[in-house]
Design brief:
By secondary structure, the protein is of the alpha/beta class. Helix content is 35%, strand content 23%. A six-stranded mixed β-sheet has the order 7-6-5-8-9-10, with helices on both faces. β5, α4 and β6 form a beta-alpha-beta unit.
């Protein structure tokens, strides 16, 4: 991703997004993560991804990353609820830049009526190349579930893109399936010696 920092505006937008995440989403306190592990910090990305400026920045940056790592992808999405605003923002940014990509949503459980489908999308054909989006990668479980469900729906997962990699083993689990690009790591929020 370092070469993307040379693109006009990318570095400035990334820095502004990091500022928003640090001030609105990052908390240095004891928490229990969805994985069950304890941590001394928490990043609630929805505090930024549901904000107008935050969503615009995420959409633009994710679009730029996807153009770089998976330019043939026709859609981007991931596991509900964390990926929902990311997918919508990315889809809108892609349309505004003249390279429209659809959004899709991977359910945590199959729809209880009708088609009982796991993946909601706007008519993506089987074999369509897609990118999985994630807010925070910890163990990688949510990203892996989204990859699995997208594949079962006949989609070809080309890459995964995350806002934050907590550097807690999730990256290794994800890259065993697809490449992963994260805009930030926990090192962007606190010194490594203080993170656990």
């Amino acid at each position: 991703m370092n070469h993307l920092l040379d693109r006009p505006g990318f570095g400035a937008r990334r820095e502004r997004l990091l500022e928003l995440l640090r001030t609105r989403a990052f908390q240095e306190r004891e928490v229990v993560l969805s994985s069950g592990a304890k941590s001394n910090f928490y990043i609630d990305c929805k505090q930024v991804s549901l904000d107008a400026e935050g969503a615009a920045l995420i959409g633009e940056l994710f679009h730029d990353v996807i153009e770089d790592v998976a330019p043939r992808a026709v859609a981007a999405g991931g596991l509900t609820l964390g990926a929902d605003p990311l997918a919508t923002a990315t889809s809108i940014a892609s349309f505004q830049r003249g390279r429209p990509r659809s959004a899709f949503i991977v359910r945590k459980e199959p729809k209880g009526h009708g088609t009982n489908q796991w993946v909601e999308h706007a008519g993506l054909p089987a074999g369509a190349e897609v990118v999985i989006l994630e807010d925070v990668v910890t163990t990688g479980a949510a990203t892996l579930k989204a990859i699995e469900r997208a594949r079962l729906a006949g989609l070809v997962v080309a890459h995964a893109v995350a806002l934050v990699d907590r550097l807690e083993g999730g990256r290794d689990a994800v890259v065993a399936e697809v490449p992963l690009t994260a805009l930030f790591t926990r090192d962007d929020f606190m010194p490594p010696e203080r993170a656990r």
